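Aim 2 progress update. The chain analyzed this quarter is reproduced below.
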Amino acid sequence: MKDPVAPVAHAVEIRDLHKRFGRLEVLRGIDFAVDPGQVVCVIGPSGSGKSTLLRCVNLLEQPTSGRVVLEGVELTDPDVDIDAARRRVGMVFQQFNLFPHMTALQNVMIAQRRVLRRRASEAERIAREHLAKVGVLEKASFYPAQLSGGQQQRVAIARALAMSPALMLFDEPTSALDPELVGDVLTVMRKLAEEGMTMLVVTHEMAFARDVADRVVFMDGGVIVEDGPPDQVIGSPRHERTRSFLRRVLDPTHTDV
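Predicted structure tokens:
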């Protein structure tokens, strides 16, 4: 008789997450989970806590209280090896955070060498594979100042992917880009989604969220207001606060009375 198949654990599980900065409570009891292979887009107005949520997931910000569990390992456990656990999470920021004195290739290699202790030959092979994946292999020898913003962001994505993460976090990855460069970055993210990468994406790109996300989470005031399929949250939101936000985002000329 075969052993029963164990249920697949959530890729990341967030329970009753709170974050305060002094007297300001930015996250006020966040509860949700992302399953392996899911793409979850987090939308909401500025100041709603979206970026803080991402930074708490990989403990760039220490939660005030609550639990963050990654692949069954509680990151918020005081005894956890946080460096080992954090290696399983890739993060792409609004700003590209590339080392200006290193080429694109060197930027993708450095964490592999220093954190994962990969041999130089292996790190270079993996770096080139991921630069090719995001469409900038021909820029491998270029320095960040020689690259467009979109190319720099794609190098940043390659750098994160090269670490073999179980979860990719994207914090408004197109917000610092000129409009004509946004599409190239979103194309890369769409491809990752198609390949089954687990992704938690803070974004204002509603078309991307509608087309690519398995779920959309709308946040406001440090809480989750709505969480559901894109057709529901974006196409037919249940809450007036969500409807008001989407009216402004989808029609910038609209003014609520």
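Residues 139 and 239 are 46 Å apart (CA to CA). The chain has a mean pLDDT of 92. These observations will guide the mutagenesis experiments scheduled for the next reporting period.
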